Amino acid sequence: MPRVIVCDVNETLLDVGALEPHFKQAFGDGRVLQDWFANVLLYSEVATLAGPYFDFASIGGAALDMVASARGTTLSAADRTRILQGMLTLPAHPDVRDGLQTMRDAGLRLVTLTNSAPAAVQQQLANAGLTGFFEQSFSVDTVRRFKPAPEAYRSVADALNVSIGQLRLVAAHAWDVVGAPRAGCAAAFVARPGKVLYPLGPQPDIVGPDFRKVAQAIVAAERA
Questions:
Q1: What are the pLDDT digits (tens) for 144-168?
Q2: Which partner for 167 in 49, 141, 185, 203 could form a disulfide, CB atoms 3.0-4.6 Å apart?
Q3: Strand ranges, E, within 68-201
Q4: Other C-beta atoms within 10 Å of 65: how many?
């Protein structure tokens, strides 16, 4: 039986870099985006390990306030809202639609799993024009533990009534590609610019420079 393909959303399918102009307007430097998103991911993991749990958007807001405070910047309400709401209207990376179509044409089942809350991911996929590719979208809110906690991946297998080994995660994050195999999934890594694998973790059997190439490799692997 072919594996179910589980796509990460933020940075894997959607271009978080589209927020850079908002950060330039608010901070005078678009590169602050990178510090902010790294803190969002860090404190989502803190919430999983130490608690308390808050949804991804709430952590995003808290991390934005932390970054502003660290830089001695007072964010206007308009700038804060523009950045946080911008997460809901991110465009898809240009390689994503072709890659999803390749996998769907091959008859593979496609779902998403994201740290974003359910309502947020529905808006994200709809605004990016990607909703129709996926049979379901899953959120870590179900288990209140952010990826790469194993419960997040296992919740997808449970919901689909398949074994965890029947899932293949596709992500542009090294931590996600470590978490999925540790939970029992296969994994594929999208090596977008600046993204590299964690050398001390399990290594995925599929690695490609973009989503299109990864999708082609997945189809070939499932047909082998």
A1: 999 999 999 999 999 999 999 999 9
A2: 185
A3: 110-114, 136-139, 167-171, 186-190
A4: 12
In this prediction, residue 206 carries a pLDDT of: 98
Give residues with Cβ within 8 angstroms of 223, minimum separation 6.
106
Amino acid at 108: L
Please answer whether residues 5 and 218 qualify as being in contact, where contact means their C-beta atoms are separated by less than 8 angstroms: yes
d(CA 3, CA 169): 10
Q: What is the mean pLDDT of residues 174-184?
A: 98
The number of beta carbons lying within 10 Å of the beta carbon of residue 116 is: 26
- Find how far residue 199's CA is from the centre of its chain: 20
Which residue bears the tokens 């405070």?
A: 69
What is the per-residue pLDDT across 6-56, written as a single tens digit (0 to 9) for each?
A: 999 999 999 999 999 999 999 999 999 999 999 999 999 999 999 999 999
Distance CA 200, CA 202 (A): 7
In this structure, what token pair is assigned to residue 54?
Answer: 């808050």
Q: What gap in Å lies between CA 162 and CA 184, rounded to an integer?
A: 12
Distance CA 106, CA 201 (A): 30
- As a 3-state breakdown, the chain gives helix, strand, coil percent values, each rounded to 5, of 55, 15, 35
